[in-house]
Description:
Largest sheet of chain A: 9 strands, mixed
Structural class of chain A: alpha/beta
Number of helices of chain A: 6
CATH topology of the largest domain in chain B: Rossmann fold
CATH architecture of the largest domain in chain A: 3-Layer(aba) Sandwich
Number of domains of chain A: 2
Radius of gyration of chain B: 23 Å
Order of helices and strands of chain B: EEEHEHEHEHEEEEEEEHEHEHEEH
Distance between the termini of chain A: 58 Å
Strand content of chain B: 25-35%
CATH superfamily of the largest domain in chain B: HUPs
Shape of chain A: globular
Helix content of chain B: 25-40%
Structural class of chain B: alpha/beta
Strand content of chain A: 25-35%
CATH class of the largest domain in chain B: Alpha Beta
Helix content of chain A: 25-40%
CATH architecture of the largest domain in chain B: 3-Layer(aba) Sandwich
Number of helices of chain B: 8
Number of strands of chain B: 17
Order of helices and strands of chain A: EEEHEHEHEHEEEEHEEEH
CATH class of the largest domain in chain A: Alpha Beta
Largest interface: A-B, 81 and 95 residues
Shape of chain B: elongated
Low-confidence stretches of chain B: none
Oligomer: heterodimer
Amino acid sequence: MKIVVCIKQVPERDARLRIAADGKSIDLTGVATEINESDQYALEAGLRLAEGSGGEVVVLLLGPDVAEEAIRRALAMGAARAVHLNDAAFQDADASSTAKALAAAAAKESPDLVLTGLQSDDAGWSQTGVLVAERLGWPSATLIMEIEPPAEGRIKVKRELESGWFQWITLPLPAVLTIQSGIYPVRYATLKGIMGAKKKEMKKLAPADLGLEPGAVGAAGRRVEVRRLYVPEKTAEAEILQGDAATAAAALVDRLQKEAKVL
Amino acid sequence: MAGAIWAITQTEKGEPRGVSYETIAAGQRLAAALGKPLEAVMLGSGVRGAAEKVAARKVERVRLIEDPKLEPYTPDPYAAALRRAVEAEKPAYLLFPHTYQVRDWVPRLAAALDAGFVSDVVDFRAEGGEPVFVRQPYQGKLNADCAFAAGDGPRLVSFQAGAFLADDAAKGDTPAEIVEQAVDLADVEVRTQVLDTFQEVENKVDLSRAEVIVAVGRGIGKQENLGLVEQLAAALGGQLAASRPVCDNEWLPMDRQIGSSGQTVAPRLYLAVGISGAIQHLVGMKNSGTIVAINKDANAPIFSVADYGIVGDLFEVVPALTAKVKEARGA
């Protein structure tokens, strides 16, 4: 089976974030990046399905030149090839204009399945996968924790509900699934994989290649805009206990006994 | 822009979920700020009883959309039903609770309507008659003020659980009228088939009863290091718990997980060790009595809900704290 996995490049989890001069975005100069965590799990799930069925994984990413690093990593992990939506017109997209471009690119591949993470660690809209599904006219299911190999044109998946509840459902292919973190342990790229990735195809596409007007994608196609990005004011200020580990620990125990009276 | 504000409620086992009232509370505030009427909407099958409960709140009316295809919940008929109601009535705003179910179907509706959807909102204010919505991107490290681009289409907003209080949803002087909103779903194909809905059997640890919880996060680095935190939990006579990444890595079983996808707890004392405090974790523990955070990053969001904090290396702080706790408790 043929599987398209949509991934996003995001700042590393512990990266120090600086607000850019426009006050609306992050200055990514010199910031270490990684593949969005739940997208890594989506990639792992896709690779397992492809390996089990003799199929291939095509990785799809919308982002600037620097996002090639994330694509190389996905190829090193085992994706067969990549499609990189990389054009100035794609920049500063919202979830809606991102999904429009991803759906058009996914449609060109005619896959059996599109996988992506349940949400990004940066913007965190938790919409993109399902938006892509509606644009494609395909069924979707979110927060997937387990996938069974497809049979008779349908796929059986386990969804996570809230408060420890789960659900087994089936849906017809082609379909879009958004993957929950933790579905399977994510593999590391091997040295052989890293070397092999250099020879794999990485197709760069612009809006015209997808039959989209530049005004339909990126900033021009947005339905929602960020007016300002800023460090939140701390609402409740914690008392930070100073000193070396032993001093701070002693001060904490003192507070817990005398102030909070919980020890 | 004409049109009402719709608060879309959610039911569970025929009852309105608590978050539905949070959405109504947010809707009442938005209605007051924008001078628009607020209506509640309920989708389902056999949910008139739930609609009557919602009708006790101060809303202009409750629109009840009932169809056998809306039970059990699946995304296709939900998106189709609300889309048809929206096209008939042309509301200005659609408000939702940011639940897993909403995340499963509301983006479909947004794409079908080609409408904007500001999700996971924690607050809003009106600027020049237009609402500006506050979100917390980058794992809650930053705030973003968001606005809708110009356009006539409906505007979709979902609110984070706990951002508005259910108790703030004012009651009306008399019950609101319940209007049956007729939508024809005859041509809508229900593509998703629900086989089984269940709770994992191994979910045996009930952390909600614990008086003291020591929760460990990604900062612990690897499973072999958990012993340090176990010793602290033992010294405090508390339960060991974890944030999601620890359970995802299978360092601790899923039934130890605190947060939106795990258990919700409010012990007397909660210690968060090496947990940065992503919102998914905070919603599961922020109502705890006394909260202590130990983290190397002074800017970690966990410190914004903590009463006491130690900024430092947990591998030094935790053993020191275990020793001091033992001393204090005479062990």
